[in-house]
Design goal:
Blueprint (H helix, E strand, L loop, with lengths): L5 H6 L15 E6 L2 H9 L8 E5 L2 E5 L1 H5 L6 E2 H7 L4 E4 L4 H15 L5 E4 L3 E5 L17 E2 L11 H23 L3 E6 L2 H8 L7 E3 L5 H6 L12 H9 L5 H6 L2 H8 L1 H11 L15 E11 L2 H22 L5 E9 L5 E9 L17 H19 L7 E9 L14 H4 L23 H6 L2 H14 L19 H6 L2 H16 L9 H4 L4
Parallel strand pairs: 2-5, 8-10, 9-10
Antiparallel strand pairs: 1-7, 1-9, 2-3, 3-4, 6-7, 11-14, 12-13, 12-14
Helix pairs in contact: 5-6, 11-12, 13-14
The chain binds a DNA duplex (9 and 7 nucleotides) through helix 9, strand 11 and strand 13.
DNA sequence: ATGGGTCCT
DNA sequence: AGGACCC
């Protein structure tokens, strides 16, 4: 069972730094260049070559590179953008329909390279292509595109070749997007999601960059400020600043208990790992949306008549999306932004269960049939509105949002005999509860098998694989999984990379019945 | 901010 | 239901 690479890698797992299975995965992050602007230029090619800004309300939310060359920046107000660049052409980007459509086309192109595609917003995708990496007869280490900070040393785990191959796949993806959709993009290639995303931004636009594993600390510390790490937002940043932590290095070296005090154990560990470039989170296949909604912000309104009008408009927009989706939601949420007398605004929401009448298999199309339905929904929305406004005497509302959720989950309760087991009958949980899959076989499956499956079953299988693979599972929280035989108090005080290393070894031991422990763990064992 | 989304508490 | 994060 452990044919090729199993034994020898495990037996010579000596270096604390570049060891065995550290960089198993190959992750590609694809980021479309100035997304909204590109879509508008494709829809209206006469805009090409001219400075173009996309506006929402009184903001330029993004702009093309011609506009950037003239000083326009993202999130400028319309006013200051036009002062900077009087020749700026503006397109309204409040209706996301066209952007959603192109986003789905992009997703489908990427899916043709790997089933493991995760969307982040409308213009970014992570793709896990680990299973596409081949053992090549000859050493092939030509990287397509840029390499981040070329360095001579080669990681012992063999990831250099894998990442080089990943860069070739990324190049093919980007060529495909360009040729089929006319879309230019950037790509980052690395062994985890964090680093793939970060390295992709080092050469923009329309370029790609590969991070070799030996440069990962260099990349992450080049960000300088913790706030620049995806996953560290404004709230965490405020707390870090209260601790005087304003560089990545300080975040790396802060005692974990200090971070835990301020942020809780889970977040503390997560962000300290991020500060070392460690990110074990999986690429999660993006399935159908869990919520479908629409919002509109506006100058303050004060009457229920106006609220009703706004809600009718929003409801029409969101019902169109829900109808297109085809599923029947059973939850309806209203969110309201109230302008508080004091000056700043507050969002509140109320949710309720509904019976959604139109949709799926019904014979009614967009007809008078669902007028009654809309009226019912309007009634429940106004009831929710009252719950929020309630006793307020002179309220002012500056935003309304409607969102439908609670869609049926495909994986309903008893898949017992019918689905996965039919295709993989022998080795599911029943026969040998504690026997893990051989490491060499994990993550490598014959895709032709997948192609044969009915689409719904295929999705189920892929999700199942993702959920079962221990190799790339997010780290379990903290001290509770201190390795066996190690003093938890000692464990807790160790630097995060060492803890990571110990936990990785612990996981490997559980997976395969390794006999010799020529590794870090033994040094931390209590004498027995 | 804008108009969306996700997940965690 | 709110709050954090992402774009």
């Amino acid at each position: 069972m452990e044919e090729e690479n199993g034994d020898q890698e495990l037996l010579f797992n000596t270096s604390a730094d570049q060891s065995t299975k550290k960089h198993e995965r190959v992750i590609i992050h694809i980021d479309i260049d100035c997304y909204y602007a590109q879509v508008e230029m494709i829809l209206n090619p006469s805009l090409c070559g001219k400075p173009l800004g996309i506006k929402q309300k009184n903001l330029v939310v993004t702009c093309n590179y011609e506009a950037r060359a003239l000083g326009v920046e993202k999130l400028m107000t319309i006013k200051s953008a036009l002062e900077k660049c009087p020749s700026l052409i503006l397109a309204n980007g409040e209706d996301l329909k066209n952007y959603r459509e192109m986003s789905e086309k992009i997703y489908h192109v990427l899916q043709s390279y790997s089933p493991f595609v995760e969307k982040l917003g409308l213009d970014e995708n992570f793709v896990d292509v680990t299973h596409k990496i081949m053992k090549l007869p000859e050493v092939q280490q030509v990287v397509s595109g840029h390499t981040f900070q070329d360095s001579d040393d080669i990681c012992a785990c063999g990831c250099t070749e894998r990442l080089a191959q990943g860069s070739l796949i990324a190049q093919k993806m980007r060529d495909h997007l360009r040729n089929e959709l006319g879309i230019t993009s950037c790509a980052g290639i690395a062994f985890n999601k964090l680093l793939a995303k970060l390295v992709g931004t080092t050469h923009k636009p329309n370029q790609q960059t590969t991070l070799l594993s030996t440069s990962s600390l260099s990349l992450i510390t080049s960000l300088k400020h913790p706030r620049n790490i995806p996953g560290i937002g404004s709230a965490i940043n405020r707390k870090l600043e209260a601790l005087g932590i304003d560089t990545i290095e300080k975040l790396q070296s802060t005692e974990i208990f200090k971070l835990t005090e301020a942020l809780g154990a889970k977040t503390a560990n997560q962000i300290q790992q991020l500060s070392f470039g460690i990110d074990n989170s999986r690429v999660k296949i993006t399935d159908r949306p869990k919520s479908i909604g629409a919002e509109d912000g506006f100058i303050p309104i004060r009457s229920e008549v106006e609220v009703r009008k706004k809600l009718m408009c929003l409801l029409d927009r969101v019902l169109e999306l829900v109808e297109k989706d085809g599923r029947k939601p059973n939850q309806l949420k209203l969110t309201v932004r109230k302008l508080h007398p004091s000056s700043h605004s507050v969002r509140e929401s109320r949710q309720t269960t509904i019976e959604y009448a139109t949709g799926t298999g019904s014979s009614t199309n967009q007809g008078p049939g669902d007028e009654k339905h809309k009226i019912k929904l309007m009634t429940t929305l106004m009831n929710l509105f009252e719950k929020i406004i309630g006793c307020d005497v002179s309220w002012q509302v500056t935003l309304l949002g409607i969102s439908f959720s609670g869609y049926p989950s495909k994986n309903s309760e008893s898949p017992a005999e019918n689905s996965i087991n039919k295709y993989f009958p022998v080795k599911t949980s029943s026969s040998r509860p504690d026997e893990p899959l051989p490491p060499a076989k994990r993550g490598r499956f014959d895709e032709s098998v997948l192609q044969e499956l009915p689409p719904d079953i295929r999705q189920e299988v892929l999700e199942d694989m993702q959920n079962q693979l221990p190799s790339s599972d997010p780290q379990k929280p903290t001290d509770s999984n201190c390795p066996k035989g190690v003093d938890p108090l000692v464990f807790r005080e160790l630097p995060v990379e060492i803890r990571e290393e110990l936990l990785a070894e612990e996981r490997m031991k559980k997976q395969s019945n390794i006999k010799k422990s020529n590794n870090l763990l033994q040094y931390f064992r209590k004498a027995s």
